[in-house]
Amino acid sequence: MTRRFLFVLGSARSDGNTELLARRAAEQLPPDVEQQWIDLTEHPLPDFVDLRHDSDHVRPTEGNAALLLDATLAATDVVIASPLYWYSVSSYTKRYLDYWSGWLRTPGLDFKATMAGRTLWGVAAHADEEPSVADPLIGTLNNSAAYMGMRFGGVLLGNGSKPGDVLGDSEALARAKTFFSREAPLARFPHEER
Ligand SMILES: Cc1cc2nc3c(=O)[nH]c(=O)nc-3n(C[C@H](O)[C@H](O)[C@H](O)COP(=O)(O)O)c2cc1C
């Protein structure tokens, strides 16, 4: 299967550090790897409604939910490009992930079986000088991948506050050059690794 990367941009501003860093990493992908970029602020999802125990979710056929579902199903690799907001993913990103819960319960989709074995990646900019403050974001993505039976390639972190700052983080730019060529093992919950 040809690899197809879906970049889901979750910053609340355009042309920010997270996207800059994600684009640096994506530049290194071979030309035969397809790329799709979706900015969640340009394609906002309505509030997520939890119907799990009331009625079946219905497959969306139009609008941003359909666009994101189809793009997700078509992707061999999903890249969550979210800035660090309150030590986790942005609300735009979180809402997209909440929609996965609905897709898991949508008859006919087989969302979990379809996504199993595919790869989840993360790219995140943070203002704090200490990268370990992003551990909750990394844990969110790792555990989500583990729940889905997906591979997890880790999170490419970069430091910056105002747009463009991340271009001064030379270590992050160096990591970006090889980020998508790293091993992405099947994700495991921390308690499974003991
Ligand atoms: C709502 C909000 C919450 C934030 N929370 C954090 C945080 O918890 N830790 C941190 O280091 N930076 C935090 N920041 C700073 C951003 O992560 C930083 O400015 C980053 O470069 C933004 O990425 P972007 O340019 O891609 O939007 C926060 C910024 C905003 C707007």
TrEMBL record:
- Keywords of this protein's UniProt record, alphabetized? Flavoprotein, FMN
Q: Which domain of life is it from?
A: Bacteria
User: InterPro entries from the xrefs?
Assistant: Flavoprotein-like_sf, FMN_Rdtase-like_dom, ISF_SsuE-like
Chain ranges of the NADPH-dependent FMN reductase-like domain: 5-114
PANTHER family on file: NAD(P)H-DEPENDENT FMN-CONTAINING OXIDOREDUCTASE YWQN-RELATED
Q: Does the keyword Plastid apply?
A: no
- Flavoprotein among the record's keywords? yes
Which Pfam family, just one, is annotated for this protein?
FMN_red
Which Gene3D superfamilies does the entry mention? 3.40.50.360
Name by which UniProt lists this protein: NAD(P)H-dependent oxidoreductase
